[in-house]
Design a protein that fits this description.
Layout: H1 3-7, H2 10-26, H3 31-39, H4 58-71, H5 73-94, H6 101-108, E1 113-116, E2 132-135, E3 141-147, E4 158-165, E5 177-183, E6 189-191, E7 208-215, E8 220-224, H7 232-266, H8 280-309, H9 317-342, H10 353-362, H11 371-383
Parallel strand pairs: 1-4, 2-4
Antiparallel strand pairs: 2-3, 3-7, 4-5, 5-8, 6-7
């Protein structure tokens, strides 16, 4: 048995798939899914075995997230955010940055990490922040601001976030962007409970309001300058986030293709008397879907393997990662457009799985790096910065 199937058993994936429509209809967090995934050890996937984890590498987790997303996209996206921080910590610790050991140790102990990075209107993403970070004499930092799309909001126990030192003067060489991990029991924050969205509803990614939430010095893990920079934390976050995000949307396409093949085989043409899997138009459209999925499959597998191997792509890493994320989210929508076109009008009903997958796929429009950001990255790489 391969290591993924040993954890994400067919029985577990079937139960998760069965619960997905209910979570979506009730706009409810996937509590039962998370409990079962935790019990199976899945949240310890990338923690090294000597620290109590499964010892998976990035390509293995990418493949697993595709399978989980095919069963329940919102559940996969939710646990993705925890996996990203563990992947980041694994990369940083390997590079000698021991401040991130706490992430691996605590993930092994059952703590759940969430991503408190996104801010409304912040198109600089990791290179600037609207959240204020006040540094205290003892090295602790208090954060004030609002983080949006805080996936795992109902259950996180550790919130990885960053903000900008309000005392910074803008002098060259300063490192005002401060990263740390907030413990849930710490006062000074609240959840807005505002997640009532078109899709990915089971993630319950409420906004988080920080009102002087204090992180002690030992939980502050990195300080960076404002603006693009080659710090290993920046690469670790972008490479982990964009690759694992692409895995989720590739999984959506996998499931849509499988459903499309099943549905056309069940439909019969009144004109020809044959099932629609023999119809040349349906065959062409599903071949087009397969073409898109196979191309994305190669891109995702290849880039995950190169990240794991430490490939030297230099300045082309950012455009490669942006291209992967953009291709994955676009392909998911393209696949669903084509599959819906051959699957019959019944699939337009809200309760159909294809309808839910389509709504979930639309969330890809809003993830960093969004379409505009990706194109800026690619244009700067191709033509030079403005």
């Amino acid at each position: 048995m391969d290591p993924i199937t040993a954890v994400l058993t067919p029985q577990l994936l079937e139960r998760i798939a069965e619960r997905a429509p209910g979570y979506d209809a009730r706009n409810e967090f996937c509590h039962e899914d998370l409990a079962e995934l935790t019990e199976a050890g899945y949240l310890r996937a990338m923690v090294p075995t000597e620290q109590g984890g499964l010892g998976w590498d990035l390509p293995t987790l990418v493949a697993a997230q595709r399978r989980l997303a095919a069963a329940a996209p919102a559940t996969a996206l939710a646990v993705n955010m925890h996996h990203i921080w563990v992947s980041v910590a694994r990369s940083m610790v390997t590079g000698g940055h021991t401040a991130f050991e706490q992430v691996l140790t605590e993930a092994a102990a059952g703590e759940i990490f969430a991503f408190g990075i996104s801010e409304a209107g912040n198109d600089a993403v990791l290179f600037d922040s609207t959240t204020q970070a006040q540094v205290h004499e003892d090295g602790a930092v208090s954060f004030t601001g609002t983080k949006i799309f805080t996936t795992l909001a109902p259950v996180w126990t550790r919130l990885g976030l960053f903000g900008k030192d309000t005392s910074a003067t803008g002098t060259e060489g300063e490192t005002p962007l401060i990263f740390g991990f907030l413990e849930r029991e710490t006062p000074g924050w609240r959840s807005l409970e505002n997640w009532d969205t078109l899709g990915m509803r089971a993630t319950q990614s409420h906004a988080t309001v920080l009102e002087g939430a204090r992180i002690p010095a030992e939980r502050i893990v990195r300080r960076l300058p404002v603006g693009p920079n080659p710090d290993p934390l920046v690469f670790a976050i972008f490479s982990s986030f964009l690759t694992l995000l692409a895995a989720v949307y590739t999984g959506i396409g996998d499931r849509a293709l499988s459903l499309g093949a099943e549905l056309v085989a069940k439909r019969t043409s009144l004109l020809s008397g044959e099932t629609m899997d023999r119809d040349p138009d349906a065959r062409y459209k599903l071949a087009e879907v397969q073409l898109a999925q196979l191309s994305l499959d190669s891109q995702l597998r290849g880039l995950a393997a190169e990240i794991e191997a430490g490939a030297e792509h230099g300045a082309s890493w950012s455009p490669r990662l942006a291209a992967l994320r953009t291709n994955a989210t676009r392909t998911a929508r393209k696949v669903l457009d084509l599959v819906l076109g051959v699957s019959g009008g019944a699939q337009y009903h809200r309760e159909s799985e294809l309808s839910r997958l389509y709504r979930d796929a639309l969330a890809g429009i809003h993830h960093p790096s969004d379409d505009e950001s990706a194109h800026r990255t690619l244009a700067n790489y191709t033509l030079g910065p403005l």
